[in-house]
């Protein structure tokens, strides 16, 4: 092993030079990229809930579905409990919904609703009056 010391050091220096020349960037192998994506997909707890339990409006639906904030969170809690998944608090759930692009509005006083989503059990649609109220307020 002692005789290999110089060769190992030269190999380390050569690798460091290549790394610096590449802008301190290493391209990940396709296998690593695929494994990382599989992990992210498995760990996307919100998308799992949405895929299994919800209906999401498409562009053609023009964001007419809705569900109350509390009712959607209750459905999420039930889903998490039934799947044995870690249950996030309502604040984390709401932040994840907003980060996923969903919009929360207040309608008729203080009732809050998520737009463009509902559970498979509650396929609610916004009325024409509510659409007018949402666009004017």
How are the elements arranged and paired?
Blueprint: H1 5-21, H2 30-43, H3 45-53, E1 54-56, E2 65-68, H4 69-83, H5 90-99, E3 104-107, E4 111-115, E5 117-119, E6 124-125, H6 128-136
Please state how the strands of the largest beta sheet are arranged side by side.
Answer: 3-4-2-6
Shape, per Cα inertia axes = elongated
Distance between the termini: 76 Å
How many DSSP-defined strands? 6
Which residues form runs of ≥5 with pLDDT under 50? none
Description:
This protein is of the alpha+beta class and 137 residues long. It has one domain: Orthogonal Bundle (Arc Repressor Mutant, subunit A). Helices cover 54% and strands 15% of the residues. It is built from six helices and six strands. It has helices at 5-21, 30-43, 45-53, 69-83, 90-99, 128-136; strands spanning 54-56, 65-68, 104-107, 111-115, 117-119, 124-125. The strands form two sheets. It has a four-stranded antiparallel beta sheet with strand order 3-4-2-6. Strands 1-5 form a two-stranded antiparallel ribbon. A hairpin with a 3-residue loop joins strand 3 (104-107) and strand 4. The longest helix has 17 residues, at 5-21. The protein is elongated, with a radius of gyration of 25 Å. The mean pLDDT is 84.
In a few lines, what is going on in this structure?
Helix content is 54%, strand content 15%.
Main traits of this protein?
alpha+beta, two-stranded antiparallel ribbon, 6 strands, Arc Repressor Mutant, subunit A, 137 residues
